[in-house]
Design goal:
D-Maltodextrin-Binding Protein, domain 2, 2 domains, 11-stranded mixed sheet, 17 helices, 45% helix, globular, disordered N terminus
């Protein structure tokens, strides 16, 4: 998990620079005069995915083969070795796949240079996608692409360690004050209360719970340095300095799920991907999942999602849209959920999902109050600087960290 994140971060800048640079040099991503001629005949769709493993690859290949055989087209699904790098190079080189996974954290980079076909309004019943996911993939007022699936953060509790600390269900924290009180009880018993990832993708949830976030909803201006965000970051700093929360590196772990699996912390904050990781690496850990504690302004979590991107330069756009339509049907999304553990992006299959996976209800319930990633282009270096500040939060100044983000983001956005 951690190593994948690092790899993505390392190559993201290279791919984005290649993509943005080529657009600036006149490759014509957003030059409508160079509209790609469309083919109405049978399509040979090339589909590039960032697969989580063999189960996902097989599920998508099977679904694509079923669609192709029923529609008279062909569809070749290729799992990328490194999606960000390969996609960036293909887009920059003018030879993109027709359909591809687009991570929410990269979406604005691709949309801002005209690399994506804004087809979202052509997908039937697109209002059925969770609103937070539609917002994530909207740029300049247009829904660009159909959300593929999503994850949210919740609180995991090691039930054996919980009992060992003398706690009951009455101690499950539903507010920040209760989180502090419960963590103090755990610490008093000589255990580490909370393993917390040292990134915006975990700590950011606290900003949302206090009514704040890093960017405006339309992605045009930074909003980090506010009293709400400063108070949220100060709360996290207090957890760290009082020993009520620790970063994974303090627990000799690569990520919070590893620290939790090793029994080094009683609680952690992770997404539903932790289920597979614990089954694989720590199958004997007994745990339960509950919603994240609400902050002063209410409940909040973060969402992580991808969409089915269609290349603006594809010559099979209509066929590609029909392919995405098939991949995002409720029935197909449930098949994917059962095959490799993702949560469907359509609200209409929510009850089906929670019936099949009752323990994951806190994750899917989070869609109602989830915040997507920073949705602005050219933010890689800005976000890396923020991460460095958060890693030093225990000895840092929350207001300074947030003010630096605003300053750097404003510069990156050209203003």
């Amino acid at each position: 998990m951690a190593s994948r994140t690092l790899t993505r971060a390392a190559v993201a800048g290279l791919a984005a620079v290649a993509l943005l640079g080529s657009a600036a040099c006149g490759s014509g991503f957003d030059d409508n005069s160079g509209e790609t001629a469309q083919s109405n005949g049978p399509a040979n769709l090339q589909i590039l995915i960032g697969s989580s493993g063999d189960a996902e690859t097989k599920a998508v290949q099977d679904a694509a083969a079923k669609w192709a055989s029923g529609s008279g087209n062909t569809a070749t699904v290729t799992p990328a070795q490194d999606l960000t790098q390969q996609l960036g190079q293909a887009l920059a080189g003018g030879t993109p796949p027709d359909v591809f996974y687009v991570d929410a954290s990269r979406f604005a980079d691709y949309a801002s240079v005209g690399a994506l076909e804004p087809y979202g309004d052509k997908i039937s019943n697109n209002g059925d996608f969770y609103e937070s996911l539609r917002t994530t993939f909207t740029y300049n007022g247009k829904l660009y692409c159909a959300p593929k699936d999503f994850s949210t953060l919740a609180l995991q509790i090691n039930t054996d360690l919980w009992a060992k600390a003398g706690l009951t269900d009455a101690d499950i924290p539903t507010t920040w004050d209760q989180l502090t009180a419960t963590a103090q009880k755990i610490k008093a018993k000589g255990q580490v209360p909370l393993a917390l990832g040292d990134t915006r993708d975990r700590i950011g949830a606290f900003l949302v719970q206090n009514g704040g976030w890093l960017m405006s909803e339309d992605g045009t201006r930074p909003t980090a340095d506010t009293p709400e965000n400063v108070a949220a970051l100060q709360y996290v700093k207090d957890l760290l300095t009082k020993g009520l929360a620790q970063y994974p590196k303090q627990l000799d772990a690569g990520w919070s799920g590893e620290a939790f699996g090793k029994g080094k912390a009683v609680m952690t904050i992770e997404g539903n991907w932790i289920k597979g990781a614990l089954q694989n690496d720590f199958p004997n850990v007994k745990y339960k999942v509950v919603p994240l504690p609400a902050g002063p302004k209410g409940q909040g979590t973060l969402s992580f999602t991808q969409c089915w991107g269609i290349a603006a330069k594809s010559k099979y756009k209509e066929q590609a849209i029909k392919f995405v339509e098939a991949m995002t049907s409720g029935e197909q999304q449930m098949a994917f959920a059962k095959a490799f553990g993702v949560m469907p992006s359509r609200e209409s299959v929510r009850e089906q999902y929670t019936s099949a996976f009752p323990n994951d209800k806190p994750f899917i319930d989070g869609a109602a109050f989830a915040q997507g990633p920073v949705n602005a282009p050219k933010m890689d270096s800005v976000l890396r600087d923020l991460e460095a500040g958060l890693q030093g939060l225990a000895t840092g100044d929350p207001k300074t960290i947030l003010a630096n983000f605003d300053k750097n983001a404003t510069a990156a956005l050209g203003g």
